[in-house]
Amino acid sequence: MIEGGTIGDITWHRIVEAEGPEFEIGFLLPDATSDAVAPYRDWLEPRFLEPGTDRLIMTTQSYVLKTKHHNILIDSCVGNDKERRFYPPWSGLSGTRYLDGLSAVGLSVDDIDFVMCTHLHADHVGWNTRLVDGRWVPTFPNARYVFAETEFGFWSELNKKGKKYSDGCIDDSVLPVVEAGQADIVADDYAFNDDIWFQPTPGHTPGHVSVHLNSGDNNGVLSGDVVHTPIQCREPGWSAVGCSDRAQSAETRKSFLDRYCETDTLVMTGHFPSPSVGHVCRHGDGFDFEFSAV
Ligand SMILES: [Zn+2]
């Protein structure tokens, strides 16, 4: 099982919070009617789709990037003790798998220098905070939390209308970080250094960004939620129920897949089943995903 690797001088690890059957395919992807899915069923089952339930096999995970100088954590999963309505299984988690995963790669919460979220949905911001004595406090006490300005601006404005618009995650997983003085609001094309920078990929949310890695001749890209599940490579027009602009999301996904298709860029997905990383290749008029060897 690949849990990590290198992109030139950058070492990366996956920190998995959960993996298994999650959303029903027709719920997550409204275009995935039973007729539309039928031609793909043999290919989808059982690796990507649970037979009998039509639930997609998905991973919830962070990536940790170790550079010469810093440890950068990208996306922070669902988190413990959160209250969520959109997907009730995300409520009241209490597992230790996530923090154990961090320890397994030699890191404690004290060692993370930067935290960033590709977008501010509940399954990407959760471990930004944890509950201590009834208060949400930053999980990573020494980290700067880096938020892309369009995404942060969109959600902080919407949250003024009520916390239900973010299912509570801005209130419990973003604003406490700001109040603690650990947040930096940065440009949508922010660069951590010469090797790691944001690439705006809007559509799933208004300010969604992917993260590009380049070191020497080696390239990687963390796709965030540009694509949720491998069938969207075959059918890039299928956007997710949670996309704020489904047409823009489809356009972004097509151009993203086209840009990396048949290149040596390692595409590091947020939610694909393990090993989650691989390369985009051509398949007929569309695309496919070649997972890295396990
Ligand atoms: Zn997600």
The appropriate CATH architecture is 4-Layer Sandwich
Which ligands, by name, code or SMILES, are bound? Answer: zinc ion
Distance between the termini: 5 Å
Shape summary: globular
Structural class comes to alpha+beta
Written account of the structure:
The protein is of the alpha+beta class. The chain contains ten helices and 16 strands. The strands form three sheets. Strands 1, 2, 3, 4, 5, 6, 9 and 10 form an eight-stranded mixed β-sheet that branches. Strands 11-12-13-14-15-16 form a six-stranded mixed β-sheet. It is globular, with a radius of gyration of 18 Å. The protein starts with a strand and ends with a strand. Zinc ion (ZN) binds at residues 121, 123-124, 225, 270-271.
Which structural traits does this protein have?
294 residues, Metallo-beta-lactamase, Chain A, binds zinc ion, 32% strand, six-stranded mixed sheet, alpha+beta, 10 helices, 22% helix
